[in-house]
Each structure stands twice: as C-alpha cells, then as structure tokens.
C-alpha cells in the first residue's frame, strides 16, 4: 500500500476498557485514552462493502494509521464526537508500515 503521509491528517484516539478502582475500593470498568495518532479516516461506501464482503452498516469507516504494535479489536476509537468500534485490523501488505482498521459507529 503506497500512501502519502499528508493523507494521515485526522486525529484519532485509541481507548481501552479497563477495570478501575476508586479511593473507596469500588471497582468499575471504564474507557480511558491510550494513544492519539494521525490517521486517514474514510467512510466505507456501499459499493466497497459489496466488493469486500463487509456487513452493511450505515456508519462504517476504514482508518489507516502507521503501524502501531498492540492495537486490538478490544479497543475503540474516538474520532471527533464519534465513538467507533474496531471490527477488523489488517496489517496492510504485511510490511509493518500501515494498519487498516475497519470500524463501525457505536
């Protein structure tokens, strides 16, 4: 995948769901910000969904970021005022340069 780095022009934040204990010892699960990255964010168009055999949902996106170790489908992405659930992560061309992340809006 050849990509112009200037197309990585959107800021996204990866979030992780973790068990947090407060001062009183109460444990709760909550999302917290892990890392903020530059990304290319594009909606998945209906024709593309058919070609790639992707389930058709209204607000699906694919996001391209520089390869970052440790990103999993258990995380989610905060993009502007949207929360995106990670559906699939692909190491583009298996060259450890870029990741393509398929997401759907929560």
Key phrases:
Thrombin, subunit H; 106 residues; 6 strands; 6% helix; six-stranded antiparallel barrel; mainly beta; 55% strand; single chain
CATH class assignment: Mainly Beta
Largest beta-sheet characterization: 6 strands, antiparallel, barrel
The number of helical segments is: 1
CATH homologous superfamily identity: Bacteriophage SPP1 head-tail adaptor protein
Task: Supply the number of structural domains.
Answer: 1
How many distinct beta strands?
6
**Proper CATH architecture:** Beta Barrel
* Element pattern in H and E: EEHEEEE
Strand content: over 45%
Based on CA atoms alone, the radius of gyration comes out at 15 Å
Overall morphology: elongated
* Rounded mean pLDDT score: 87
Q: Indicate the CATH topology.
A: Thrombin, subunit H
Note poorly predicted spans.
none
Helix content: under 10%
Assembly type of the chains comes to: single chain
Task: Return the structural class.
Answer: mainly beta
Which strand order do you get reading across the main beta sheet? 1-2-3-6-5-4
Distance between the termini: 28 Å
């Amino acid at each position: 995948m050849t990509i112009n780095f200037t197309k990585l022009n959107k800021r996204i934040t990866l979030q992780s769901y973790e068990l947090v204990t407060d001062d009183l010892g109460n444990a709760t699960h909550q999302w917290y910000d892990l890392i903020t990255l530059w990304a290319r964010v594009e909606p998945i168009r209906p024709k593309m969904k058919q070609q790639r055999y992707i389930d058709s949902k209204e607000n699906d996106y694919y996001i391209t970021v520089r390869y970052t170790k440790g990103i999993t489908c258990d995380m989610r992405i905060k993009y502007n005022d949207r929360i995106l659930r990670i559906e699939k992560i692909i190491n583009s061309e298996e060259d450890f340069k870029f990741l393509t992340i398929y997401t759907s809006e929560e």
